[in-house]
Amino acid sequence: DKLVALVPAAGIGRRMGADKPKQYLPLTEHCILGETLARLLAHPAISEVVVALAAEDPYFDDLAQASHPKLRTVIGGDERADSVLACLAAVNPDIAPWVLVHDAARPLITAGDIDAVVKAARAGQGAILAAPLVDTIKWSQDGKRIEETVPRQHLWRALTPQCFPTGALRLALSEALAEGASITDEASAMERLGWPVTLVKGRNDNIKITEPADLPLARWLLSQQES
Ligand code: C5P
């Protein structure tokens, strides 16, 4: 059976404050999205990559990966979950029973991390890459005064890729959107329906490029991966 990768890349990346969506900012010889796609397309277990783009995206066709035979594009939606659902509509669950959702903004993904999350997902009913917290966590209602310190022992940061059965993810995301639930990753939609999702400790360099300072950091992390 086949594994399809879904890449939501329809966001505008407001926090980056750049003149184009962050996924198109230069990173290596590729832009951020190009590097992410190159890595997913090169993985032998991934048979197809479906990318969700903004409706009138003028940048995508310039990517070196744009006409790759394993690549398809769809038009994304208002929220990340809408964009992932748009990708899912292009996947036949009978042919590809598992999907791997990966942020466009995480170009440092490695084959080893992909293999680990897919293996854990297939051993159960779904899995995500995640990282234990290293900072002490404060809770504040108003963003000024600390109400309390939240024990970090059981807290994890959700990364991507996240790997789930195709049909179940489609159902979970549709229900979450219909009920107006706030969904910032795929696992949260599965959790709402009581599906067990396995945590897989990911690499520390699998950062999500969000702010301007993340670009030089990502380039340095890339140079460390190569050496
Ligand atoms: O904003 P954030 O960094 O959490 O976005 C994560 C990913 O979801 C990005 O790759 C972004 O392009 C994508 N996204 C999308 N459609 C939206 C909003 C975000 O595909 N409507």
TrEMBL record:
CDD domains: CDP-ME_synthetase
EC identifiers of the protein: 2.7.7.60
SUPFAM superfamilies: Nucleotide-diphospho-sugar transferases
Involved pathway(s): Isoprenoid biosynthesis; isopentenyl diphosphate biosynthesis via DXP pathway; isopentenyl diphosphate from 1-deoxy-D-xylulose 5-phosphate: step 2/6
Site positions for Positions MEP for the nucleophilic attack: 152, 208
GO MF annotations, alphabetized: 2-C-methyl-D-erythritol 4-phosphate cytidylyltransferase activity
Record key words, sorted: Isoprene biosynthesis, Nucleotidyltransferase, Transferase
InterPro entries: IspD, IspD/TarI, IspD/TarI_cytidylyltransf_bact, ISPD_synthase_CS, Nucleotide-diphossugar_trans
Positions bearing the site annotation: Transition state stabilizer: 15, 22
Source species, domain of life: Bacteria
PROSITE patterns recorded: ISPD
GO term, biological process aspect, one: isopentenyl diphosphate biosynthetic process, methylerythritol 4-phosphate pathway
Catalyzed reaction equations: 2-C-methyl-D-erythritol 4-phosphate + CTP + H(+) = 4-CDP-2-C-methyl-D-erythritol + diphosphate
Role description: Catalyzes the formation of 4-diphosphocytidyl-2-C-methyl-D-erythritol from CTP and 2-C-methyl-D-erythritol 4-phosphate (MEP).
HAMAP family for this protein: IspD (MF_00108)
UniProt xrefs under PANTHER family: 2-C-METHYL-D-ERYTHRITOL 4-PHOSPHATE CYTIDYLYLTRANSFERASE, CHLOROPLASTIC
Assembly mode: Homodimer.
Family from the record: Belongs to the IspD/TarI cytidylyltransferase family. IspD subfamily.
Protein name per Swiss-Prot or TrEMBL: 2-C-methyl-D-erythritol 4-phosphate cytidylyltransferase
Origin species: Gallaecimonas xiamenensis 3-C-1
Gene (UniProt): ispD
